[in-house]
Structure formats: C-alpha cells, structure tokens
Amino acid sequence: MIDQSRIDDLRQRSVAAGLHIIGGASGPSADGATLAVVSPIDGQPLTEIAAGGQTEIDRAVAAARAAFEDGRWSGLAATARGRVLQKIADAIEAEADALAVLGVRDNGTEISMARKAEPGSAAGTFRYYGELCGKEYGEIAPTAPGTLGLVHHEPVGVVGVIVPWNFPLMIGAWKIAAALAAGNSVVLKPAEVASLSLLRMVEICHEAGLPDGVLNVVTGTGEAAGAALARHMDVDVLAFTGSGGVGRKLLEYAAHSNLKRVYLELGGKSPNVVFADTPDLDRAAAVAAGGIFRNSGQVCVAGSRLLIERSIHAEFVLRVMAHASAMRIGDPLDLRTNAGAIASEVQMNAILAACDRAVADGADLRMGGARIAAETGGFYIGPTLFDNAPQNSALVQSEIFGPVLAVQPFDTEDEAVALANGTSYGLAAAVFTRDISRAHRMVSRLRAGVVHVNTYGGADISVPLGGHGQSGNGHDKSPHAMDKYRNLKTAWIQL
Ligand code: NAD
Predict the structure, then answer these.
(1) Distance between CA 485 and CA 157 in Å, rounded?
(2) For a Cys-Cys bond, which of 34, 52, 209, 430 suits 272, CB 3.0-4.6 Å?
(3) How far does the centroid of ligand 1 lie from the alpha carbon of residue 484, in Å?
(4) How close is the Cα of 222 to the center of ligand 1, in Å?
(5) Does ligand 1 have an atom closer than 6 angstroms to the CB of 426?
(6) 79 and 129 share a domain?
C-alpha cells in the first residue's frame, strides 16, 4: 500500500507535456497545437498535451493497420501475446504508485481509491487477458454427415478506443487488453482532462515488449481527434465509454462512414433499493453513502438514486447523512481523503446547475449543493442529498455525474420496481434485504447490467459490465468482452 510520504514525494515531480504515440514514437501535432492541462486539485496549470486532429488520427490508423497486416502482433501465437500482456501487467504494477499519483493530479480522484482502482485494476486486467490467451477453443458445428463446419474467431483488425476522464487506466485497460489479446491493433483517444496516466501506460506497454504500431495514442479534443477516429474509414470497431450524448454521435459517424461496429458503455442513474428488513441498516447506509459520494460521484455505476421503504425512510436518510458528513472531502492526494475533486471546472459548474434545478423542481435539499474549499482554487462539491425527489424531475431522470443523491420513499415492492426502472438508463442497481426470495426476484425485475445484493460496487474483472436500456450495448470485462474485438468466420467443408 502506498504511504503518505511517497505520495508527497511523487506529487512534487514536474509533469512533462503529453505527446501522441504513433508507431512507437512520441511527437507533437503536425501544426504544434496543444491543450492546457489544469489540475482540479488547485485549479493551477499542470502541463499541456498535444491536440491532435485528422492528420494524427490518419497516421495512427495507418500505423495500426500496417502492424495488423504484417502480423507482428496479430500473427503471433496467442500464448506469445499472452506473455507480453503479462509483462505489461508486471510493469504497470512496478510503477503503480507513480501512475496513480500522476492520474490523481490530472483528474482529482482520491488516492485511496485511485491506487487500487487505477493501476491496480489496469495491471489485473492485463494479467487476466494475458492468462486467457491460448486457453480458448474454436468450434465444430453439429452438421450433417459428409460436411464439416468449423467456426473460427478472428481479430477484427483496427480497434478505436475512446475513454472518459474517470478511471482512465481501468477503463482503458478493459478495452485495450481485451482488444490486444484478441490480436488486434489499437488507436486510443483519451479524455482531454485525463490523458497523462494513459500516455505513460502506453509507454510502459512498449517498454514491456509490445511491438511498435500495435497500440497508438492520439490526444486532443473529442470534437477533433475523437470524431476523426470515429469517422475513420479504416477503423473496424469503435469501443467507447462516456456519455450518451457522445454515444449517439458515434453511431451517426459510423452510419455516415464505414458502418464500423460501435460498442457503447454509457452513463447511468442507478437505483439503490433499501427494504425495511435490511439486515444491518447502518452498514447499508454507509454503503449507500460510499456508493454515490466516493470519487465525488464521478463513477458510471454510482448509486445516484436511493429508494427507501417508507417505514425506515426518515431514519435511513439521517443515517446516510451522518455517514456523508463524516466523509473527508478535499485534497485527493491526502490518504485520509474519502472524496477528491471534480475533474474540471466545467463539470463542477454543470453539477451546481443541476442542484439549482433540483431545488426549482421541488426536491428537498437536505445537505450540500454548493462548492466547498474554493480558497484552494480546486473544484470541490460536498456530498449533496435531495429528499422526496419528484420522479419526473431531471434530478431523477438525468445523470449528473457528481456527488448528488436523489432519495425517494416507496411503499411496496412493485412501486420500488416501477420507480427504479422508470428512467431511460439501466447500468447498475442494488437491493438491500434479508429476504433471499425477494433478493432474487429483484435481481430479475430490476433493469440493469449489474444488480448488487446487500452491497454496492466492487465486482471484479471476471464478471461482465455493460448497460441495458440507454446505458449502452456492449460489455467490458470477463471473457465476453473479447467478442467485441473478434469476427466469427465459418469454414464449410465438403468431406
Ligand atoms: P464524454 O462523453 O463527454 O467524453 C468521453 C470521451 O469522448 C472523451 O474522450 C471525449 O473527448 C470524447 N468525445 C467527446 N465528444 C466526441 C465526439 N464528438 N466524437 C468523438 N469523441 C468525442 O464523457 P465524460 O464526461 O468524459 O465521462 C463521463 C461519462 O462517462 C458519464 O456519462 C459516465 O456515466 C460515463 N461512463 C460510463 C462507464 C460505463 O462503463 N458504462 C464508465 C465510466 C464513465
């Protein structure tokens, strides 16, 4: 585990400007354009990153295609690819402290969470897919006598990966490691407010033996670099994590370019349903508070709605507020901090606007709703709880992606299900109850890609994560994720 003196040492390091990595070489944009990187910890400039566009994306896709076609990676035995992926895992783990601190300076996640969730899970993900390489079989179809139907799994070719600012290493690794394990080449476009740790991770991949051109990264804005990647005629699959609004655009870009397959892992408005028979109400309240307020709510699966059976509603709200009040919000590089900064000033202002709107829509503001620690220059909002949130309000219907909890009481299981399923999303959910039959019923009735029972979050790499409804159409994690990055091919043989 990282200690405070190590963090304090690492936070003093100067941060080099971020450059594109194309064909194994780092370099600036052709026109020299850059974007300033502001640390959300104190609102001060941290460094800058290259701002790429069509030219850099064209170069990166060409490098990825050349690497794919000449077989320097795609042509290796799966076990040989697996060995490189495992070396990458070791190298990420060896540099985990520095990667974690660099990422926190860029996006503000508290280090107590980031050390495990970022380099920790990225290393675990490369190891998992590395171990999977060479352990899968093709298929022989049950065809008529005299015929043989073989089903092969083939890599798709060039995979474009676009990721958000929250958990860039974890989410980046989920896509990159699975795509590489399947034999593809990759072009990555990180979020403009969280590129630095991913750039270092791509360098580490090369140092660990990944051949040049197999993994390329172009930094820059979504509108320039991201759109150029999503519109590119020579990208076979686009794997995206981010907002539904951008997801919609990516589907349009695919329709207007080469009909590439587009996988979307989008946002959520995930309900946490607490029944009066919950075994340990105080523990459930602590989990509910952590499920929305850790990382200041910038978690796709955050439990941003809390549905409480009416008989315990008032008491449970007080318990959640007590746990939220006990959380330490502030400097994300202090190990004692429970929730760090909002990733950018733009996002902080969007969250505050959503809080104003919730008040106007009639929800009861019980705590938070305002910027805190403004004297630091950083972007912080305290845990915010609205009670009696109207079902049709934006507070309940729209993802805020901040430390904002919408509470609603319910009377019956049917009403809880109706409220819980009453948004366009379907990413995650939770049910707290001691009744095992009800727990299983709720798992099947709640519309969500993951339903937690008597807990929230923490699912490991072995289980898939993907949205139902407008929370997306693909899955990261588990062997199922490999399907996104492969084509099926049939060999039909007359014997
Ligand atoms: P965002 O959609 O604004 O940006 C995501 C990425 O898309 C960034 O790299 C951005 O530069 C790029 N982008 C923006 N416009 C683009 C365009 N026109 N063309 C191509 N690329 C473009 O998302 P964000 O604000 O960075 O992240 C927060 C969102 O991500 C939330 O909605 C959150 O729920 C979601 N998220 C989902 C999951 C999941 O697994 N389902 C995980 C984490 C985050």
Answers:
(1) 8
(2) 430
(3) 19
(4) 9
(5) no
(6) yes
Q: Does any domain span residue 465?
A: no
What's the token pair of residue 284?
A: 């459930």
Amino acid at 412: T
Residue 466 lies in a domain: no
Based on the fold, state whether residues 225 and 281 are members of the same structural domain.
no
468 alpha carbon, distance to own chain's centre: 16
d(CA 54, CA 36): 20
Per-residue confidence (pLDDT) for residue 371, from 0 to 100: 98
pLDDT score, position 458: 85
Q: Is the CB of 166 under 6 A from ligand 1?
A: yes
- List, for residues 72-130, the tens digit of each pLDDT value: 999 999 999 999 999 999 999 999 999 999 999 999 999 999 999 999 999 999 999 99
What count of other Cβ atoms lies within 10 Å of the Cβ of residue 73? 24
pLDDT value of position 1: 80
The span from the CA of 334 to the CA of 260, in Å, is 44
Three state DSSP letters for 395-438: HHHCCCCCCEEEEEEECCHHHHHHHHCCCCCCCEEEEECCCHHH
User: For residue 164, how far is its CA from the centre of ligand 1 (angstroms)?
Assistant: 4
If one counts the domains in the chain, the total is 2
CATH of the domain at 388: 3.40.309.10
What sign has the CA pseudo-torsion 221, 222, 223, 224? positive
Atom of ligand 1 at shortest distance to CA of 265?
A: 41
- Range(s) of the domain holding residue 412: 271-460
**pLDDT tens digits, one per residue of 161-216:** 999 999 999 999 999 999 999 999 999 999 999 999 999 999 999 999 999 999 99
Q: Give the whole-angstrom CA distance, residue 408 versus residue 273.
A: 10
* DSSP structural state of residue 208: T
Q: Tokens 């920790």, residue? A: 120
- What is the spatial distance between Cα 201 and Cα 239, in angstroms, rounded to a whole number? 18
Task: Assess whether 190 and 212 both reside in one domain.
Answer: yes
Say whether 300 is catalytic.
yes
On whether both 175 and 303 belong to a single domain, the answer is no
Residues of the chain with pLDDT under 70: none
